[in-house]
Design goal:
This protein is α+β, with helices and mostly antiparallel strands. The protein has helices at residues 2-13, 16-24, 31-39, 57-70, 76-90, 93-105, 218-253, 265-293, 299-325, 336-348, 353-363; strands spanning 110-113, 129-133, 136-147, 154-160, 169-175, 181-185, 195-205, 210-211, 255-256, 259-260. It starts with a helix and ends with a helix. The relative contact order is 0.11. The model has no long low-confidence stretch (mean pLDDT 95). The longest helix is centred in the middle third of the chain and has 36 residues, at 218-253. The protein contains 11 helices and 10 strands. The strands form 3 sheets. A 4-stranded mixed sheet has the order 1-4-5-8, with helices on one face. A hairpin with a 2-residue loop joins strand 2 and strand 3 (136-147).
Length: 366
């Protein structure tokens, strides 16, 4: 029922015309659409009841899959898939009550600022400097490819307070736009999702901005990234499903030499492979989502297995979808290129397939 209602809502409120309109807008975001999403309770999914939430993470995964199918623009994934897990894993009770409560009500949006110019998602890449200053903290450095930072009311920021690698990382909850913080939208390939550069030039934060314990953020951050990985995989699987359906319909109706092109093996075999990738990716994703929510012993392994598989699957299916459509698939007017660009964007977000295969090998003690 949740899946059906989400699909019907997005078909009406986030059809391709709406997506293209938001792509061309300055913010890539519609306040009225966000309010409708909040009214449906989507911004409360997966948040514990004591903070105003409802439902489970698996409920959120269902909605994220449908959001990916519709290429939903705006800060839904950055808020629910990135910021909420960070708050749940590392936030103090006061931070959770304030930020999660506002998110659940739909009155606030949030994001996670992790990546820096190297573009990696490991602890070694964190160089944003956090130093103690006047009873609080000072941030200096730059974050790149921060999703929807320009619309975020809260930002979980990963900084290095000492040492190197996994030691000495601290998470901060930054509210609003403090003095010294500047946000600049970036021009990227995927226009359905906004990415930003965030600069911190002597940004002063109070001591209560620290999420969890100083210098010891990595374990909680790693767990939150596992939540985020399963959430992103769900969004990607939705895109895979839409490309499969669109390509199948086109192969049935497009005729060449008096016959539908779907009867030719060069086309039908591509679509069969797309179906296998879709179903396998969905199975891996839903197992990962369950493992993360149940805190199963193999949660890290399951999340990385899903991301490695789905990253490759979405890129391959989106590319084959363009091939099935032939010449029209390469045109700006057709939607297929939007899915290919989202596939490429999502492929590198939270680490690409190569990165996660390395994590799988480490988890298996190889």
């Amino acid at each position: 029922m949740l899946r059906r209602s989400a699909r019907e809502f997005l078909a009406k409120e986030c059809n391709p015309k709406v997506v293209r309109r938001l792509m061309e807008s300055e913010d890539g975001y519609d306040e009225a659409l966000w309010k409708k999403i909040a009214d449906l309770g989507w911004t409360a999914l997966g948040i514990p009841e004591q903070y105003g939430g409802v439902g489970t993470f698996l409920d959120l995964v269902v909605v994220l899959e449908e959001a990916g199918r519709a290429l939903l623009p705006g800060p839904f994934f950055s808020t629910m898939g990135l910021a909420v897990p960070a708050l749940l894993e590392a936030g103090t009770e006061a931070q959770k009550k304030e930020a999660l409560g506002a998110i659940a009500q739909g009155s606030a949006r949030a994001t996670l600022a992790f990546t820096e110019p190297p573009g990696r998602w490991d602890a070694d890449s964190i160089a944003l400097k956090a130093t103690q200053s006047g009873g609080g903290w000072r941030l200096d450095g730059v974050k790149t490819f921060v999703p929807d930072a320009h619309t975020a009311d809260y930002m979980a920021v990963v900084a290095r307070s000492r040492g190197e690698g996994e030691e000495g990382l601290t998470l901060f909850l930054v509210k609003g736009r403090p003095k010294g913080m500047t946000v600049r939208p970036l021009e990227t390939m995927d226009m359905t999702r906004r990415w930003c550069e965030v600069r911190f030039d002597g940004v002063q934060l109070d001591a209560d901005a620290v999420m969890g314990a100083p210098d010891k953020a990595w374990p909680a951050l790693k767990r939150s990234l596992e939540w985020a990985t399963a959430a992103l995989c769900a969004e990607m699987v939705g895109g895979v499903q839409k490309v499969l359906e669109t390509s199948t319909e086109y192969a049935k109706t497009r005729h060449q030499f008096g016959k539908p092109i779907g009867i030719y093996q060069a086309v039908s075999h591509k679509i069969a492979d797309m179906l296998v990738l879709s179903e396998s990716g969905r199975s891996a994703t839903y197992y990962a989502a369950w493992a993360v929510e149940a805190d199963a012993p193999d949660r890290s392994l399951a999340a990385s297995m899903a991301k490695a598989y789905v990253s490759d699957a979405y890129r391959k299916v989106a590319g084959d979808g363009i091939q099935v459509h032939g010449g029209i698939g390469f045109t700006w007017e057709h939607d297929m290129h939007l899915y290919f660009k989202r596939a490429k964007s999502s492929e590198v977000t939270l680490g690409d397939a190569t990165y996660h295969r390395e994590l799988v090998a480490q988890a298996l003690d190889l």
